[in-house]
């Protein structure tokens, strides 16, 4: 498990270092703010196409191959960014390889956690896993503060080089990770589409997936448009880095207490309220507030969004049978990537008229819809199809049952 946590730290450090840097690189070569929405979507497209097949292959062959392939894709992404950074097209291609590498790595990690955890312990285990992920998300934006850039632009080439070196380290860790035990022959005969359809028929699951996709898309938009907000308002790159670090740091902090918070408030209530708080924090970014208040808002947003993200992981992991958990995690990621593909592209067009502040306000409104959708989590117990009624009951009861979980 220690290797998986180390893997999670490094993959997120690479991703959260490269993604805002790619935004700066696109702006530096003359790309518009509207194009940043396309950059965010380019990160999501490979995952949208490959998520379900990747999860199904992981269920059949193990997680290690996915981790190795993901690390290789990240090395390619860094090389493209380093040697083709003067072209918007090459930067988009680098973003796509980054998205593919991130997808394969994260599905592999989540499948290992799901397959090696006992039922009833998912909240705490995924809390630890997402704590490690948030640690990497905190380290990544610190790269924007490396010396060598200008007041408003970080040292783009240096950051891409550091991320490439980290990708090589990730490849080494991937070689050391061992796949979890495979299910028996019956599990290996599970077909992808029927298994995915069975999961989607679980009561409340689709609305929970919608909520998760909006939540994750909001993080992507925050990463992509905070540099644009800095450009608009003349905010130094170091302060933008501080806001990104604050978001990640408080997301990491919130996950230390995920188990006790779920026990105290219940999954559904905690998810709905933290999404709502996230919405308010992002909408306030549209106002001309001073830097101290923006830093505080980034911290509040980070704590709230960091709390609700792991809840869908643990809930879906409990619903899935052994032999389908890789597919379940990939189904979650596929829905997330669908939101990451559609929403940033739509809001990218809005930025041409309303600026980066308008994107933050619109993202906050989307999160209000995500809070409504997240209210489905924990409803309709006992109706899960496909012989999973007992699991559905364990995961689907109201807050009173959630409070009894360790």
UniProtKB/TrEMBL annotation:
UniProt keyword terms in alphabetical order: Membrane, Transmembrane, Transmembrane helix
Domain Major facilitator superfamily (MFS) profile: 1-381
Highest taxon of source: Bacteria
Transmembrane segments: 35-53, 65-84, 90-114, 126-144, 156-177, 198-223, 235-258, 270-287, 341-368
Major subcellular location class: membrane
Subcellular location per the Swiss-Prot or TrEMBL entry: Cell membrane
Membrane topology term: Multi-pass membrane protein
Claim: DNA-binding is one of the keywords in the record: no
Protein name, UniProt field: MFS transporter
Species for this entry: Arthrobacter silviterrae
Lineage, uppermost ranks: Bacteria, Bacillati, Actinomycetota, Actinomycetes, Micrococcales
């Amino acid at each position: 498990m220690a290797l998986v946590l180390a893997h999670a730290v490094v993959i997120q450090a690479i991703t959260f270092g490269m993604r805002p840097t790619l935004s700066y690189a696109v702006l530096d070569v003359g790309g518009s703010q509207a194009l940043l929405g396309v950059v965010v979507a380019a990160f999501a497209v490979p995952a949208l196409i490959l998520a379900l097949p990747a999860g199904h292959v992981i269920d059949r062959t193990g997680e290690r191959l996915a981790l190795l392939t993901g690390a290789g894709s990240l090395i390619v992404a860094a090389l493209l960014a380093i040697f083709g950074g003067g072209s918007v097209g090459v930067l988009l291609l680098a973003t796509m390889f980054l998205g593919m590498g991130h997808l394969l790595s994260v599905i592999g990690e989540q499948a290992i956690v799901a397959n090696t955890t006992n039922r009833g312990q998912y909240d705490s285990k995924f809390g630890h896993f997402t704590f490690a992920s948030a640690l990497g998300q905190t380290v990544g934006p610190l790269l924007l503060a490396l010396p060598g850039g200008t007041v408003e632009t970080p040292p783009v080439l240096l950051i891409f080089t550091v991320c490439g070196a980290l990708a090589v380290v990730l490849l080494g860790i991937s070689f050391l990770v061992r796949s979890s035990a495979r299910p028996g022959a019956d599990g290996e005969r599970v077909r992808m589409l029927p298994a995915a359809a069975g999961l989607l028929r679980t009561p409340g699951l689709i609305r929970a997936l919608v909520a998760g996709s909006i939540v994750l898309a909001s993080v992507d938009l925050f990463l992509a448009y905070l540099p644009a907000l800095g450009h608009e308002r003349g905010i130094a790159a170091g302060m933008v880095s501080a806001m990104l670090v604050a978001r990640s740091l408080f997301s990491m902090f919130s996950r230390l207490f995920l188990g006790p918070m779920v026990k105290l408030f219940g999954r559904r209530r905690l998810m709905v309220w933290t999404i709502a708080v996230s919405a308010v924090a992002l909408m306030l970014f549209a106002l001309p507030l001073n830097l101290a208040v923006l830093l505080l808002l980034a911290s509040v947003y980070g704590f709230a969004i960091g709390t609700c993200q792991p809840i869908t992981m643990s809930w879906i992991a409990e619903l899935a049978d052994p032999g389908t958990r890789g597919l379940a995690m990939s189904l979650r990621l596929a829905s997330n990537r669908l939101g990451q593909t559609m929403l940033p592209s739509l809001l990218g067009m809005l930025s041409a008229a309303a600026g980066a502040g308008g994107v933050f306000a619109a993202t906050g409104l989307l999160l209000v819809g995500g809070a409504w959708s997240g209210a489905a989590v924990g409803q309709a117990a006992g109706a899960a199809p496909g012989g999973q009624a007992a699991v559905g009951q364990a995961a689907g009861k109201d807050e009173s049952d959630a409070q009894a979980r360790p």
